[in-house]
Amino acid sequence: MEEIKNALDFSDFPRLDLIVVGLIAVFLLVFPVFPHSSFAMATMIQFLMFSIYGMGWNTIGGYGGQVDLGKAQYVGIGAFTTAVMLIRWDIPFWFSMPIGVCFAVTWSFIIGYPLFRLKGHYFAIATIATSLVLKDLFEVWDLVGAARGLEISPIKYIPPDFLRLIFREDIYYYYVILGFFFVGILYVNWFRKSRLGFQLRSIKDNEDMARSLGINVHLAKVKTYAIATAFVSVVGSFHACYIKNIEPADTMSLDISILIALMAMLGGAGSLWGPVIGAGILIPLKSYLKDWLGAQAGLVGIDLIIYAGIIMLVSAVEPKGIWGIVEKVRRRKRS
Amino acid sequence: MDILVSSLVAGLLIGMVLALVALGLTMIFGVMDVINFAHGEFLMIGMYAGLFTAQSTGMDPLFTLPVAAVVGFLLGIICYYGFIKFVMRGPMVAQLLGTFGLMLFIRNLALLIFGSEDRALHHGILVGKSFDLGMGVIMPATKLAAACLSVVAFVAIWLLMNRTRIGKALTATSLNAQGARYMGIPTEWMNALAWGIGGGSVTIAGALIVNFWSVNPFMGLLFTMIAFAIVALGGFGSVPGAFFAGLVVGIIMEIPGIWDFFTYTFNSDWMADVPMTSLKYMWVYLAYFVIMVFRPRGLFGWRK
Fold first, then answer.
1. Nearest residue in chain B measured CA to CA from A121
2. A161 - beta bridge partners?
């Protein structure tokens, strides 16, 4: 009970924040009621998915300060577990998702244990390397469809199938992922005030100090890495049911890993709202830029140039992200 | 036997070029403690520079190296003063993502300008010629020339680093930037110079690689990862380490050929079933991971 109370306790935020958050939550709940294009709907689902990815990344990367650039491998593990189980043995989503999380977390312990001996740059590149190794292995592994990937054919099931998460209309997917989104927010809200959350923040501030205070630094990092992994893997499973056609080449690509990290960083790593803000800006920007500019002849890649420009601008001007700017403005007002 | 020998020879030859690719990365890392994700993109720019110079002037592709070097040097300096300088003020995350943004930027700019198709060189005195070393080992002349020129460039940069005042100043900056500044070394300019030399060396490698490899805007990331692996193997910031690690990674990349040799020798069925060619680059990443975890100082334990 104490945990649930803690998760629902947002009282350390100023009232203005809570009002804004409440408005956004209401908007997210009623969004499908308004007339909208299917493109807007797809963008919103992407936004929610990447917010959750970002929240997961935020636990280890934001609160813990360990830059992880290999999250895509867990997207892949989650997605392929669900897809393989559904196609081969007809195991529904709600059962295959926890199994996928178990696989992902196990794998995260296997590689996390040696990985967290590294720090900083070395850690970041090593996570990329593990992610690419797993991607290459998936591309030759017949069980997961090798390089062609897997396709869940929706014809076999009668939509709407709530057990297997096969729907014809996007609105169902929207509410499922919205549910995950709220649970994710509450979990991270609990996490940041939990014992592990405080340990992690002290590790970020000063690792040697944390160790001298008796914190098992390595264990705390590995545990948090597993939590982050669980977040990503759940959405990976959802991704398989939503996209229905998954290939290692794009489900597990480095771009996804970087996008996850970038989103949290743009919004503000190490803050509860950061990943949501980042995803709320980057995902619509990315898909609409692609829609407007990508289709024009002779301008291939210009959407990604603008996108890269934004990344460069953020990292050069305000590495603490948008939330960092907000906090700076507030501090100035107070003094 | 001939498969084994020719795999090893091919691995060593490509390894020499890869060592030059990694040299720029290890220099930038050594001087500034920054990891440059855009490194492979610099290589791609070098390849395009070599390709277009050769095509527009009709020069032999092997003589386009100076052009590529100048392009890379300027590119490095511009990147430093235009972007990296500002990123350096932030935390490490900002540097990682900043250089990643730079990579996306250069890649898509190249896509916009050059288009997505593969381009390759078809002329040149050495194209299509090869030496037969006996025992069935055939060595393409372009690869041999590229390897030799790589070694020359490598030695030149090594001399620059170890035998000149500029090299001493660079080393001083890498050891202790603040101390170097007190001694009157313009560290800002030294950082820029490290980027310039790093960029120049990798574009030279690009102009060499374009002799036997086609170029498209998306090839950068692969070389970035290979270069990371080499730098990790050789020890971050170590120049001689990069050379030997380059050779090692060149041979690692030939593992499929070596595997084939053992498959034929043992006449083994399960070995033939392993899709080794698709796993070509996995071994490089795996080597990186293993080295980083178990021997972070690099294969030979050299420190800068």
1. B35
2. A166
Q: Which residues of B touch A310 (CB under 8 A)?
A: 101
pLDDT at A299: 66
Please report, for chain A, the start and end positions of each structural domain, with discontinuous segments joined by +: 2-253
pLDDT score for A133: 86
CB contact under 8 A, A317 and B86: yes
A73, A111, A121, A299, best to mutate vs chain B, most B CBs in 10 Å: A121
**What pLDDT shows up at residue A105?**
92
Q: Which domains does chain B have, with CATH numbers?
A: 2-294 (1.10.3470)
Which chain A residues have a beta carbon less than 8 Å from that of B105? 305, 308-309, 312
Q: pLDDT digits over B11-53, tens only?
A: 888 888 888 888 888 888 888 878 888 889 999 999 898 888 8
Helix B187-209 to helix B2-32 angle (10° resolution) is 160
Give the three-class secondary structure for A151. Answer: strand
Please give the Cα distance from A163 to A155 (Å, whole number): 15
CB-CB neighbors (< 8 A) of B293 in chain A:
114-115, 117-118, 126
The pTM (predicted TM-score) of the whole model is: 0.85
Q: What is the mean pLDDT of chain B?
A: 82
Model pLDDT for residues A34-47, shown as the tens digit of each residue = 887 888 888 888 89
Cα nearest neighbour of A126 on chain B: B289
Interchain contact, B225 vs A261, CB within 8 Å: no
DSSP string, chain B: -HHHHHHHHHHHHHHHHHHHHHHHHHHHHHHH----TTHHHHHHHHHHHHHHHHHHH---GGGGHHHHHHHHHHHHHHHIIIIIHHHTTS-HHHHHHHHHHHHHHHHHHHHHHH-SS-B----SSSTT-EEE-STT-EEEHHHHHHHHHHHHHHHHHHHHHHHSHHHHHHHHHHH-HHHHHHTT--HHHHHHHHHHHHHHHHHHHHHHHTTTS-B-TT-HHHHHHHHHHHHHHH-TT-HHHHHHHHHHHHHHHTHHHHHHHHHHHHT-HHHHHS-GGGGTTHHHHHHHHHHHHH-TT-TT----
CB contact under 8 A, B282 and A315: no
CB contact under 8 A, B279 and A132: no
